[in-house]
Amino acid sequence: MSWEQSVARLKSEMEAKHAAREEALKASRSLIQTCSKCIKNVHRHSFAQAANLLAEARAQAAEARKQVTQHPEIEYAGYLQDAEKELVEAAGCLALALGEPLPSYEDLNVNATSYLNGMGECASEMRRFVLDQMRSGNLDEAERLLGQMDAIYDDLTTFDFPDGLTGGLRRTCDALRAVIERTRSDLTLTKIQQNLIDELKRAQP
Q1: Fold category of 111-205 in CATH
Q2: pLDDT tens, 149-185?
């Protein structure tokens, strides 16, 4: 193969990779937006709509992966990692809110680092749901969800590996620990206040 032929072939390959990268980035942005909408609907208790959006997000993720699978340099460059974390977070939030088992990384077809960090972000995101349950007086449900957040944290901290392997999981866990501590403090205070209210009501003639 001549120099000219090599240049032409390499240029064609690079153009194909560039096109795949652009499509992957486009699909990734759409996926992140859909996952954000899904999480918002979870907090609104619009679970049917959230489930529909999650199904849409999973289809978008499959399409995004299809764009990069033929180009390993792009597939492993991390272009989809943030989007995959958002997918895990959305799927986890919906499952926790409904009291269903958490999906596995095989179920979601994401890599291990995206899954672990996504679950950490999911547990942090559930603080908002817990606070809503507390405001509604559903303290038992708030307690259940806090227990789930705790369990996720405990399991994530067993992955004691270098950040280069875990995608910065230690930072995710540190942030989650702070969220759990604040949430536990808020729930404890709310339960104390509720007990005082109940005692005052019982003391009334």
Answers
A1: Methane Monooxygenase Hydroxylase; Chain G, domain 1 (1.20.58)
A2: 999 999 999 999 998 899 999 999 999 999 999 999 9
